[in-house]
Amino acid sequence: MIETERAERSLNVTRRASGALLGETSEALQEAAGNLLDKAVARLEEGDEVRARALVERALHLPYDEFEEIRPAVWWLELEVSTQFSDEVELAAEGDSGWLARAEILLSEISDPVVAAVVRAALNDIASEFRLPRREDRWLHRLIAGEPFGREPLSEIDDFEELTVAVLGVLRVLNRQAELFAEG
After folding, report:
1. What span, in angstroms and rounded, lies between the C-alpha atoms of 135 and 139?
2. Helix (H) or strand (E) holding 145
3. DSSP-assigned beta bridge partners for residue 65
4. Which of 33, 80, 144, 145 has the fewest Cβ atoms nearer than 10 Å?
């Protein structure tokens, strides 16, 4: 009995150490993806499509994270879109629904259904995280347009070329969102 308890304790220590190492690897992969995609955003802003695409492809070639069960670049990008919208909501003065007007403009300019789904998924996150005035809540749900909560549109794409094009489209949306925010 005592030997079994010792073995279990040793195994638990090993599991914690393994989890910590895997967690560090996950963080490093996500950070690498973020750095590459941030650079791609900057290249797109400069009009350098070729270099932006190369950076996106490098980010998408990062290894699948078995510990978190994610593609680091896809996860980072979907989180970044959600974070950008959350930041806009948090920065808005009470009664200022400019962030919703900007979201509506963004959605009206998007022709790729996958890219639009990423934006709607981020807006779904807003609907679940923030308590909004009734008018804004109705407006937000109209923009979400039935996008199911918790969907990760980029994660559903298996074709590398299709995913690359979609990621570039989402990065363009981030740039356009920043432009609209600066104008407002």
Report:
1. 6
2. none
3. 70
4. 145
Q: Where are the alpha helices (DSSP H) in the chain?
A: 2-46, 49-60, 72-91, 98-109, 113-129, 134-144, 160-183
Contact by Cβ (8 Å): 72, 65:
yes
Farthest CA pair distance, the chain: 70
- Cα-flanking dihedrals φ and ψ of residue 95, to 5°? 85, -5
DSSP labels, 52-93: HHHHHHHHHTSPPBTTTTB-HHHHHHHHHHHHHHHHHHHHSP
Structure tokens at 2: 């005592």
Alpha-carbon distance 165 to 45, whole Å? 16
Cβ-in-10-Å burial (0-12, 13-18, 19+) of 72 comes to: buried
Helix axes 72-91, 113-129, angle to 10 degrees: 50
For 74-111, write each residue's pLDDT tens digit: 999 999 999 999 999 999 998 899 999 999 999 999 99
148 sits in which H/E element: none
Is the Cβ–Cβ distance between 125 and 85 less than 8 Å? yes
114 vs 100: CA distance, rounded Å: 20
Instruction: Provide the whole-model pTM.
Output: 0.83
